[in-house]
Amino acid sequence: MPAGLRSGLVSAPRALRIERGARTGQPIIISLDSTELGPALGGCRIKPYASWRDGMDDALRLSAAMTAKAALAEMPYGGGKAVVALSPGTAAHYAGAHRGDLLADVGEAVESFDGSYITGPDVGTSPDDMAVIGRRTRHVLCRPQHAGGSGDSSAPTAAGVLACIDAVRDRVFDGRPARRLTFAIQGLGHVGALIAGALARQGASLVVADTEPGRQRLANRWRARVAAPEQLLTSEADILVPAALGATLTPQAVPALRCRAIVGPANNQLAGDSVADLLHAQGITWAPDPVVSAGGIVASVAREISHLADPEVQNLLAAIGDRLGALLDESARSGRPPLTVAQQRLRQVLTQAQAPAGPHPTVATA
Ligand code: NAD
């Protein structure tokens, strides 16, 4: 079992289906990690893999991470994932004229779960792709707004991260305002750029990095200092914001970090669970990414399934910060790393859901 919140928990998925698309023959792998709390939520990843088995490993790992994300966000949903493991060399073919066939295959695979799996965008798929998948199934989130969906989830994801940054400012920096803090932001993509912009408007000092020179040029807008991507992690800052790839926090990287807290949207930030202990021992507060990065699924479900109005959605996004705050408070009280507290919370929620007469969790509508 890879690192993450599900480590130490039962890891067999509730359902794993592997089939070849009727039109394209490409392997479509759908893993429903858990459905005890409700239908399994999780995006559709389309990318080339050396073997479909690698795609299956990703589907298993990512669907387990979605279980943690939904359960810790107190949503009545489980975790799932669809992976289309494109054969090597076919990516360009399925980015062009044949994409519609591939997405039709995906739509039929999703529909075959009859609502127990709900898909959405992930690496290699977009809101526009969701509109095409949506011709075959209703069980799809984040279609563009003109097609009846809630669109790109980056803005609510960034809002959830900003709420978590506030929770960390209160607890680790005695409520010091952002304008008196320095943030190191790794990755200026969809979410990272929104976070950087919001922090710059609050007067924060920023040091930023992106491997794409074009994205790095955004720094001028925010009067941010640009670091080389390989030096960003060790830049001196109060709060490090990982907003690029996962597994950047390794045992080797931790001793060189020069921040007091880490709060960001990147999924699966820790290269292994032991990194959480190392960070804790070094006095660095790490905010577990499944809690921090939940804004996208919280908002898309709230808008498209629960049909909540915008003020209620904003309240739900603010509640992500409250939830992280409670977790950090428990960590401070017990002296245990935040990851351990989150794992225990997840275990409680899933155990209750598996108990025959256990209480059913409700959607948080604070
Ligand atoms: P994105 O692909 O738009 O942006 C990622 C950026 O990171 C890119 O600009 C890329 O060039 C840059 N990058 C890659 N490697 C880097 C490195 N080593 N150093 C610096 N920059 C690097 O992705 P996104 O949608 O902004 O998501 C960012 C992270 O948040 C991802 O890990 C994603 O899985 C996670 N996340 C996103 C959402 C969402 O709604 N978009 C929701 C939950 C979690």
Task: Summarize the structure in words.
With 366 residues, the protein is α/β, with parallel strands linked by helices. Helix content is 40%, strand content 14%. It has twelve helices and twelve strands. Strands 1, 2, 3, 4, 5 and 6 form a six-stranded mixed β-sheet that branches. Helix 3 crosses helix 4. It is globular. Bound molecules: nicotinamide-adenine-dinucleotide. Nicotinamide-adenine-dinucleotide binds next to helix 5 and helix 6. Residues 153-154, 157, 186-192, 209-212, 215, 229, 243-246, 265-267, 293, 296 line the site of nicotinamide-adenine-dinucleotide (NAD).
Mean pLDDT: 93
Strand content: 5-15%
Coarse structural class: alpha/beta
Total strand segments: 12
Largest sheet: 6 strands, mixed
Count of discrete alpha- or pi-helical segments spanning 4 or more residues: 12
The SSE string, one letter per element, is EEEEHEHHEHHEHEHEEEHEHHHH
Low-confidence stretches: 358-366
Q: What is the CA-atom radius of gyration, in angstroms?
A: 20 Å
Question: Which compounds are bound in this model?
Answer: nicotinamide-adenine-dinucleotide
Head-to-tail CA distance between termini:
35 Å
Which geometry do the CA atoms define? Answer: globular
Helix content: 25-40%
List keywords for this structure.
single chain; alpha/beta; 6-stranded mixed beta sheet; 6-stranded parallel beta sheet; 12 helices; binds nicotinamide-adenine-dinucleotide
How would the blueprint of this fold be written?
Blueprint: E1 15-20, E2 27-34, E3 40-41, E4 44-48, H1 52-72, E5 78-86, H2 91-95, H3 99-111, E6 117-118, H4 127-133, H5 154-172, E7 182-186, H6 190-201, E8 205-209, H7 213-216, E9 225-226, E10 239-242, E11 261-262, H8 274-281, E12 285-286, H9 289-292, H10 295-304, H11 310-334, H12 338-354
Parallel strand pairs: 3-5, 3-6, 4-5, 7-8, 7-10, 8-9, 10-11, 11-12
Antiparallel strand pairs: 1-2, 2-5
Helix pairs in contact: 3-4, 5-6, 5-10, 5-11, 10-11, 11-12
